[in-house]
Structure formats: C-alpha cells, structure tokens
Amino acid sequence: MSLGDVIFRLIQWIILIYFFALNSSYLLFTFLSLLGLFRYRQLLSYIPYKEILHLRSLKPISIIVPAFNEEETIVESVHSLLALEYPNYEVIVVNDGSTDKTLEALISHFKLQKTSRVIRRIIKTAPIKGIYISQSYPKLVVVDKVNGQKADALNAGLNVAQYPLFCAIDSDSLLDKYALLKIVQPFLEEPFKMVAAGGIIRLSNGCQIEYGQVKKVGFPARLIAQLQTIEYLRAFLGGRTGLSMLRILLIISGAFGLFRKKEVMAIQGYRQETVGEDMDLVVRLQKYLREKRIPYLIRFIPDPICWTEAPEKLKSLTRQRNRWHRGLIESLFFNRQMLFNPKYGSLGLFGMPYYVIFEMFGPFIEFLGYLLFLFFLLIGEINSQFAIFFFILAIIYGIFISLFSILLEEYSAYHFPRYRHVLSLMKASFLENFVFRQYLTLVRVKAFFDFLQGKKEWGEIQRIGFKGRQGNDK
Amino acid sequence: MTTQIYIVLYSLFFLFGFSIFLFSYISIRRLIISHREKRNQNLRQLIESAILKMLTSDYQNDHQLTLKEYVRYPEIFTEVLLEFWQTLSGSSRQQLKNIFSTYLKEKHKKDITSKRTIKRAKAAKAFVLFADEDEAITIMNLLQDKPLVKMAALTALTLNPQPQIMKIIFKSFIQESKIPLRYYFDLFTAMGKTIEPYVKDILHQPLPEEKLSLLVELIGTIPLNFLYPGLIRLSLHPSKEIRTKTARTLGNLSLPLEEIIETLLLMAEDEAWEVKAQALKSLGKLRVKKAIPLLAQALFSHSWYCRLNGGHALVRLGEEGLEILQKIARQKKDPYAADMAKMILDEIMIMQG
Questions:
Q1: Minimum Cα–Cα distance from A135: chain B residue
Q2: How far off is chain B from A240, nearest CA to CA, in Å?
Q3: Mean pLDDT of chain A
Q4: Which residues in B lie closer than 8 A to residue A57 (C-beta atoms)?
Q5: Does the residue B76 lie in any domain?
Q6: On chain A, which terminus has fewer CB atoms closer than 10 Å, C or N?
Q7: pLDDT tens, residue by residue, A266-313
Q8: Per the structure, how many domains does chain B have?
Q9: Is residue A435 part of a domain?
C-alpha cells in the first residue's frame, strides 16, 4: 500500500467517524429530548400553566423588540405582544434608526407621545433620539435611537427596561398567547438559580394568522420552507432540549428567550461586535457565572412557542445561514479561553468542544468528504464501493434522525393537524439530505471565510409578512 | 462487497419500515387520543349527573349502583369529585367523602405508595382532602416525600384550613429546605387573612433571612394589617434586604398611622439607597404631607431610584407636590433633578391626557 493510499484511507476514516459521531450525538440528544418531553408533559398534566396566571409570585417582564425597517409588520407584531396573557409586563420597541416609516407607523397607530424620560445608561449605546409612550397603551414604550445594529438596540432596551426579567424577541416573530406564562415557569421553580430560559421557534409559513396569533397550524407550501421545518424541529425539539438536559446549552435563540436582567447587566448586555449576539450572550453569561462561582441554571422549554417566518427565497436563506454561522464562529472565537478549560466545568470540557468540532468545523469536514468522494470517484483512485457504502449509510442515519424528530413534534404542543402534513414532513426528512444539506454546508464553509475577512453584514432577508396570511390547508 | 450491499439494503429496509411504523404510530395515537377525549367527556357528564343525583336524593342507595360503574375510571371520577368538593361546602362534603371512601380510596391508597412520582402527586391531593383522621400518618409521610408530592399534599392541606393543619403547614415552612419558598408564598396568599395568627407567631422566631423576607412580603401582599408592629421592629434589622422589604410593605398596608409614618421617615434616611428609595415610595403611597420637604430633597439625591421614587411620591401628594416638582424642573442648579422632575411631569400629562 502506497503512502498516498494510507493518507487517503486515514482521511476517509476521519470523515466517516465524524459523520457517525455527529449523527450519534444528534440521536442521543433526540432520545434525551423525548424523555424530557414526556417528563414535561406529565408535569404539565399535574400543574396546568394557566394556573400560573393567578400566582402572586410572578415577576414582571420587559419584552424588548429591536426593529429596523419593519414598517410592514411592526404594528401587527406589537398588537400581538400587547395581547399576551401575562399579568404584568411592558413592551419596549427599539427603533434602531430605521430608514423607512417604522417609527411613524408606531406613532400614528398607537397614538404615541414623546416624553422626556430619564434613563440609566448602564450600558453604552448609540444616542437615543426620543422615548415615546401612549395613553391608550400604557404597556408600550417606544425608543427611537441612532442605528447601531441589533445588539445595540437590545442594550438600549435593557437600559430603559424597568422589570427584573426581560424577554428579547425579534420584531418579525409572533409569540403564542401563553408563551410568557410557559417560559416563566422555570423562574418560579428555581427563582434564585434560573438566569435564562429559551422557548421553541417554529415556522409560521403555511399557518393561518389572525390578529397576530396563529389560529391554525398549517404546512408550508414551498419546498424550501418545508425542508427548513424539519431542520427546526430537529434543532429545537431534538438538539436544544437534549443539550439543556446535559447542561451544556450555549444558545438561546434571539427570537425568543427570557433572562434575568441583573446578571445580563453585570456583563454589560449584548456584545456589539458580533452578528451572533444571542449565542454570545449565553456563553458570556455562563462564563461570568462560573468565574464568580454563582450557581445557576439555564433551561430550554419545548412548549412556549415563538412563530417566525422562514425565508422562502434561496438568496435570503443563504444570507441568513451565512450570518448564523458567522455569529457562531464569532461567539466561539470571542470566548475561546473557555475551550477545554476545566475551570468552566462541563461547558469548557464538553459543550464548547462539541460546538467547535461539530458546529464550527463540521461543515468543513462534511464538505471535504463530499469533495474527496467526488474527486477520487472521478479519477478512479478510490475503493468506491467502500465509500459509497458509508456515504449511503451516513445519509440513512441522517434521515432516521430527522424522522425521529417528527415523533418529537407529535408530542409537542402544536403538532401539524393533518395526516398529509406528517407525510410531507417524512418526505422532507428524505429530501433534506440531498442537495439542500450539501448546499447549506457550502454556505457555512463560505461563512467561515467571510468571518476571516471580517465581514459584519447582517444581510437583508426578504419576507412576506404575517399580515393576511391565510394559511396553507393543503 | 456482498456484505456491504446487504447492510445497505437492510438499512434501507429498516428506514422504510421505520417510516411506516412512524406514520402508523402517529395515526393510531391520534385516533386513540380523539376517541379517549370524546369518551372522557361523556363519562365526565355521566359521573357528574350520578353524583348530583346521589347528593340530592333521599334514597342514596339507589344511585350507588350507578356510581359503582365508574370505578373503572378512577382519574375522571376523582377529578369530578374534586370539582364538586371545591364548589360545595358543609354536609355535602361529608357525602363526597363517603363516595370517595366507598369507591376510590383503596385505589388512591395504592397510588400513594406508587414508584411513579406523578402518580403519587396526583393521588396525594384527593387522598389528603378526603382522608380520615386515622390516616394522618400517611399524610405526614407525604410531607417527607419528593418536592412535587409534598407540594400536592400541602396544596390539599391548605384547602382545609383547620388550626391543627395550619400548624403543620407552618411547621413545614419553618423546616423547609427542598421546595422553592415562592411556592409557600403562593399558598399563603391564596389562603388570605386566615394565616394572620400563624404568621404573627413565627415572625418573632429566629428565621433565615430568606424566609423572613418572604413573610414580610406576604404581610404587604395579602395584606395583614394587624402585623404592623412586627414590621416596625424589623425596620432596624441588620439586613438591607429585610429593611427594603419592610419599607415597601409598610407602604402597601395603606395604614397612615403615626408609628408607621415615623418609621418610614427614619427609613428614608437609611444608609442604603435601596431602603431609602422604598421608604420614599411608601411615604408617597400613604400621602404623608409632612414628608414633602424630604421628598423634594430626594430629587437631588445621587441615586437614580431615590430621585425617581421621590418624584413619583410628590405626584401622589397632589397640587402641593406638583408645584414643587415644577419648581425643581425649572431650576438649573442640578440638571439631574430637573430632568427627573420634567420626565415625571411629562409622563403624567401624557398618561392623564
């Protein structure tokens, strides 16, 4: 056997071991999630979440909504937030220097008036131009500020927030009516230790939406959104529930998370130099708490739902995934001293390495695998039967995990109502592994190089908006 | 080669089989759930009407046979019984207790020793409510169980607030180390003023700060007005947390008594800004006119919260307070005080139209 052959065999084995290790970790998380979901549902059957509404120990929540050029959707989003079931909360919309009529839409619709509110600038942000309140909607506060990116807008919201818990959400997302009541539950169970909780993000594409609430769960009509549906189910119901049970959760989606304000203020809020401010916050928060030896808990709950619209155009999807991957790399890079550092416990020894190996470098290994497979197949240097054999097995394993996440979906609060939706999900589980997965791998590889070049763009994502979504009943 | 092909074929076959299994499982599960929901709804109505007939009839034995039919559905039967228990009072409750003893007690007794926590927690509530006196030991054992079961037992105990039971609940609170104390807070607030003598008793005992702080908060939330002398004593507590909560609670009691006002005025001079800020807020809530100079002075404080609470307290004092706020807003010596006064005046104008 020549040296080239040995090297090739070695690379081949590394790639194959990687594939199986990755899928096996997903499988482990999925099993854990199933266990977690069962436990959660049983507990819910004993303590109905609606009873929480009447508890006097509920802490008030500030909902912070950063908005940039959202004139089409902002009014409906704010309306839906003002109609949430929760006894005491405020909605702080931060207009981050929009160039369209976002602020004007808010002022005219909610009859806002400028106030000379004095705020404590604990975290430095771009200048605030004005703060608006409304007599008709006393829960609403609108902050108008000079553009400074999402993290800056969230920090401005934090400075204005007056309650001990805050919930960061995206302005183009919709919260389920009872989402706050559900997500606050861990803070009631562990009032001193709980510092953050994340809820599930589900796709609103295909759903029927009325008055800012999902009235009927539907399945997306376009294939690109269908494929993302299965991805979200796998990532949230499978991945995050499992990671949370292992106490190595490093991300709470920026679209929906509840945090204790005191600790977030102590670390100066969101980092402004990253496009992955949500992940970075959770990593830094844990770093800070572990350094100070403060006992803490961070939990993912599979029930509170935030509905968001998945991009239906390939260009938008590419931009979104590029940004997500850059954000992930930035968060890992900025907090690299945690990696393999026993000072940070399971997070440093297992959580961070997992994200670095499987999430950050994963696309490279996967992409390299595809490239080598094609290259050697073309030049005939390969033991092609062996490679094809493992390639097919890896794909079968991936499909199996996706199918398994459908089972998780069935046990979640809002499952797809029709049998044909289940069949479509199964179809998406198969199709996702061909072309779509490879394309997203390529996007993430490119994101790595964009990170190296210091790209900080957010990238515009084209969305249809919730207004008048009739849902897809097919 | 052949082995590899077989493995791939087997894997594909497995995947195909799993897909069919998954779809069938989901479909069957949905059918069963929808069937069960319909059945449960019907059963619930039938049990309700059977219990009602039994409660209102002079010939109870006639209806016993009907109820016996539903012993096979203990969960729904218990749920309906508990709902009746919460709606009815007096002698009807004794009848419900008899129904429970005749048809469900044995099942729940068994469940209480079950290995599954949820099963024990579910059984605990019914068992505690309908238990006889000789079963007190079993109930006491439930209070030593896992937090969830203990919480269920405690919830049930609070629904029957006899003096002996109340003593058990408060003893459990004093010794508590597992259940979040917030749970007791919710239990106690739901019980209202009935807990006043028990809180009074333990307020004098040496309690950990966390528990004392919860009791202070509780006094203001319900509110338990007669316990204010205890709070006045706590205004000198060495813990800043306790003093802050005491200041807040004294305001929440809405009792403009001289003793309380004097205590709050002293607390408004506390070394900790947190205590000061709360005392200022409470003085505003009690509309203490003689606190006006102190409140005006608070607007020039270094603490943002003292300035804010001082300003809001002045608003609560009406015309006189508003005039002072306007003066402070116009002065140029301290821009921080002026900004705060302007903001408060501004927001009042907007919110009150």
A1: B351
A2: 22
A3: 88
A4: 182, 185-186
A5: yes
A6: N
A7: 999 999 989 999 999 999 999 999 999 999 999 998 888 899 989 999
A8: 1
A9: no
Per-residue pLDDT reduced to its tens digit, A173-214: 889 999 999 999 888 878 888 999 999 999 999 998 887 888
A267 interfaces chain B, CB cutoff of 8 Å: no
Measured between beta carbons, the chain B residues lying within 8 angstroms of A187 are none
- Report if residue A133 sits inside a domain: yes
- Above 90 in pLDDT, residue B67? no
- What ipTM was estimated for this complex? 0.82
To the nearest whole angstrom, how far is the Cα of B224 from the nearest Cα of chain A? 15
pLDDT in tens, A212-251: 888 888 899 999 999 999 999 988 888 888 899 999 999 9
Tokens of B296: 């005006």
Tell me if B71 is assigned to some domain: yes
**Residue range of the domain that includes B71:** 47-52+61-159
pTM for this entry: 0.84
Confirm whether A69 is domain-assigned. Answer: yes
Domain that holds residue A300: 21-355
Please report whether residue A385 resides in a domain: no
Report the CATH number at residue A60. Answer: 3.90.550.10
Find chain B residues with C-beta within 8 A of A43's C-beta.
118, 148
Q: What is residue B152's predicted lDDT score, i.e. its pLDDT? A: 82
For residue B288, tell me if it sits in a domain: no
Q: Does residue B119 form part of some domain?
A: yes
The number of domains in chain A is 1
Q: Which residues of chain A register pLDDT less than 70?
A: 1, 45-54, 381-387, 413-414, 459-474
